[in-house]
Design a protein that fits this description.
The protein is an alpha/beta fold. The chain is built from nine helices and ten strands. α5 crosses α6. The N and C termini lie far apart (41 Å). The relative contact order is 0.13. Its EC number is 2.1.1.107.
Length: 283
């Protein structure tokens, strides 16, 4: 294993001792890593990785120490402050520290908090963006978050705050009015409450909803439902997080763009899904 990518362009970034690179590992499929992420894995002395990082990705850093720092709702997890200060400690020991986070480190991933702590402790950093599950995970399910005939806006929200409750600072009525498509991260636990808030704000009970779990991995599952039924359908399908929930007519495009099903030999269910009033039910 070499220290840099083969045939890399001149000026490919070198990972210097004492630096921390905060890197997005993408939504799951190792093939969705960026080349900068792969370059970082090959050079790192230490990889501090999250729960949602696909284990196969760590195989690209066989010479590095692997430190698990996962945070999962409802399960024993590392304390965020401890993670941040551990990164400082490792960097001050002269290590090349790769902080590997699922998706993109700055999209509901606490990457901004960790970067801020590092800068406050005079640790030099590099940010390597990754593909966020709210875009890439939905794309793997055949759902474009924007479509010219459907929406000119999309809003990304989190389903829980630091306390684990539904965020009290979110104005669901304003979000409902202002965004044609809503993508919800970490919303499974409170989906009944969230759906109720959107219905109270005037969204139609029949509005299409798609729930994607284990996005981009071999265990990916998709349930197509409606806003009024999504909580019951999630329970009936026994879905478990991590999940991305998409609310809006863009989810109808899965009926024509389920490319994984087509690769397996299935025909599109509807080549013009926008003419239909509600999605078909599937799991």
């Amino acid at each position: 294993m070499t220290d840099s990518l083969p045939h890399a362009p001149q000026g490919w970034p070198a990972f210097q001792p004492g630096w921390v690179w905060l890197c997005g590992a993408g939504p799951g499929d190792p093939g969705l890593l960026t080349l900068h992420a792969l370059n970082a894995l090959r050079q790192a002395d230490v990889v501090v990785y999250d729960a949602l990082v696909e284990p196969a990705i760590l195989d690209w850093a066989p010479g590095a120490e692997h430190i698990y720092a996962g945070k999962r709702g409802g399960k024993p997890s590392s304390v965020q402050r401890d993670i941040s200060l551990r990164l400082v400690e490792l960097a001050r020991a002269g290590k090349r520290v790769l902080r590997l986070k699922g998706g993109d480190p700055f999209v509901f991933g606490r990457g901004g908090e960790e970067a801020q702590t590092l800068v406050q402790h005079d640790v030099p950093i590099r940010i390597i963006p990754g593909i966020s599950a709210g875009i890439g995970g939905l794309a793997y399910a055949g759902i474009p978050v924007t479509h010219r005939d459907v929406n000119q806006s999309v809003t990304f929200v989190t389903g829980h705050d630091q306390s684990g409750n539904t965020p009290q600072t979110l104005d669901w009525a304003a979000i409902s009015r202002g965004s044609q498509v809503i993508v919800i991260y970490m919303g499974m636990k409170h989906i009944g409450q969230i759906a109720g808030a959107l219905l109270d704000a005037g969204r139609a009970p029949s509005e299409p909803v798609a729930v994607v779990t284990q996005a981009t991995t071999g265990d990916q599952r998709v349930v197509e439902t409606t806003l009024a039924r999504c909580a019951d359908d999630i329970a009936a399908a026994a879905l478990e997080p991590p999940a991305i929930i998409c609310v809006g007519r863009a989810t109808l495009m899965r009926q024509a763009l389920d490319w994984q099903a087509m690769a397996a030999g299935a025909a599109p269910r509807n080549t013009d899904p926008l003419d239909r009033g509600r999605p078909a039910e599937s799991a």
